[in-house]
Amino acid sequence: MERVEEYIETIYDIQRKENRIAKTNRIAEILGVRPASVTEMLIKMAKEGYIDYQPYRGAVLTDKGMKLAERIKRSHNIFERFLTEFLNVPKDVAHELSCKIEHYLPESIEDRIEEFLTGNITLLSKMNEGNSGRIVALFNPEVQDMGLVIGRNLILEKKKKNSIMVSFENDEKIEIEKRIAKTVFVERDG
């Protein structure tokens, strides 16, 4: 199915970005395969109802193909955004990884990541002074020894060059290195 999805995504991109029918040679060029291989796959995809294909003319996505293409694009965008915004992965690397991941994770996982991205969740290191929130995830379990535990409320008091100062509801204050603050996810208040 992954290979079919690559073709669907390519046809979608040609239709959307180039505003034209996806021709065999253009698909072959983008995917780095022989035109004969493309023709073979297009015939298969037409039989499966993903495209309308006319030899020597090209291919257009059907409603079924368009729905699949939009799901693939959604997956890709969700993973790429998560990798760049929350894990600080360089955009080109995030793009390549997203191209691979988009074919394998179930939609329920994508939905959870999208909820995470569209919610009010951010890295502690990206919060502004005076912001408050609740710790919702930790990527470094060692921070629990510092009092940073899931469910605990905090206020970012002060940002310094290499550290931040946070306070908790019991007026306890701790200074955290920025590198550690990059492993703590907080759901901001309001």
Describe the protein's architecture and organization.
The protein is 46% helix and 22% strand. It is of the alpha+beta class and 190 residues long. The chain has 3 domains: 2-66, Arc Repressor Mutant, subunit A (Orthogonal Bundle); 73-118, Orthogonal Bundle (Diphtheria Toxin Repressor, domain 2); 121-188, Ferrous iron transport protein A (FeoA) (SH3 type barrels, Roll), CATH 2.30.30. The strands form 2 sheets. Strands 3-8-4-5-6-7 form a 6-stranded antiparallel β-sheet. It has a two-stranded antiparallel ribbon with strand order 1-2. Strand 1 and strand 2 form a beta hairpin. The mean pLDDT is 90.
What would you say about this model in short?
With 190 residues, the chain is an alpha+beta fold.
Query: End-to-end span in angstroms?
Result: 43 Å
Q: Summarize the helix and strand pattern as letters.
A: HHHEEHHHEEEEEHE
**In the CATH hierarchy, what is the superfamily of the largest domain?**
Ferrous iron transport protein A (FeoA)
Tell me the radius of gyration. Answer: 23 Å
Bulk shape: elongated
**What is the number of E strands?**
8
Helix content: 40-55%
The CATH topology name of the largest domain reads SH3 type barrels
Q: Give, in spatial order, the strands making up the sheet with the most strands.
A: 3-8-4-5-6-7
The main β sheet shows up as: 6 strands, antiparallel
Beta-strand content estimate: 15-25%
Low-pLDDT stretches:
none
What is the tally of helical segments? 7
CATH-defined architecture of the largest domain:
Roll
Any idea how many domains?
Answer: 3
Q: Which class best fits the helix and strand makeup?
A: alpha+beta
